[in-house]
Design brief:
Blueprint: H1 3-12, E1 15-18, E2 30-40, E3 43-56, E4 60-61, E5 71-72, H2 78-89, E6 96-97, E7 100-110, H3 114-128, E8 133-137, H4 143-168, H5 175-195, H6 200-210, H7 213-224
Parallel strand pairs: 2-8, 5-7
Antiparallel strand pairs: 1-8, 2-3, 3-7, 4-6
Helix pairs in contact: 5-6, 6-7
């Protein structure tokens, strides 16, 4: 069977019953707890429950191959499905790239129909306050494909906010614009530090991070010695 047709069949049978409250963070890692529920083949009264975490790294500026080698721990089909996602979603992710890791923590069979188990999990998540969690129902075979599609959709939901925040922090500026922005920020911190000595530590850290400390060293120590 054509693996891409297999992917489509799996995705048609996969549904996200609960999405995380918070979107993918622009800066830092995002950790989402997931519950993937599947009927055990030939046993309608038995359901397989897989639990784990998907970790999304903070988005970075894009490279040409959007989804290639972006999934770790998702099984043998991850490379080919990554290519499938790239073909179908690449244009939507113009500007940013994401990388994900799956950490499967447990898998067990529950003697309950799928719907009953899903209802129980949803109630428990609500009671425990697990906002950053997802409940997914899908086929037992190829469940990792459904999980990869879920995290790709989470990136789609987060993309506009991630792009805006990176733009606000100057990540898309031309080199000269970025340099001017950096110097403007430092001059602003010097002005604040003259009025408020508590800002000196922030100014010192920013000078070191920017690599401009040698250039501003004399001005900085004059402020410190006031």
């Amino acid at each position: 069977m054509d693996p891409r047709k297999s992917f489509r069949d799996i995705l048609k049978k996969t549904a996200v019953l609960k999405v995380p409250k918070h979107r993918i963070s622009t800066f830092g890692f995002t950790k989402i707890r997931y519950f993937f529920v599947s009927q055990v083949p030939a046993f309608p009264d038995r359901t397989r429950l897989r639990e784990g975490f998907v970790v999304a790294e903070s988005p970075k500026l894009i490279t040409p191959d959007v989804f290639k080698n972006r999934f770790e721990g998702f099984g043998s089909e991850s490379e080919e499905f990554g290519q499938w996602l790239s073909d179908h979603y690449g244009e939507s992710f113009r500007g940013l790239q994401y990388r994900f890791k799956n950490d499967l923590t447990s898998g067990k069979v529950e003697f309950l129909p799928v719907k009953a188990l899903c209802d129980n999990i949803a109630k428990n998540l609500s009671k425990e306050g697990w906002e950053q969690s997802a409940l997914i129902r899908g086929p037992d075979a190829g469940w990792q494909v459904g999980l990869m599609k879920f995290i790709a959709d989470e990136c789609m939901r987060s993309f506009a906010d991630n792009l805006r925040e990176l733009d606000e922090h100057g990540y898309f500026e031309a080199p000269q614009d970025a340099e001017n922005h950096k110097r403007k920020e430092i001059e602003g911190l010097f002005s604040k530090a003259r009025a408020n000595p508590d800002v000196l530590s922030v100014l010192g850290s920013r000078l070191k991070q920017s690599g401009l400390f040698p250039e501003y060293e004399d001005r900085f120590f004059k402020l410190v010695q006031r």
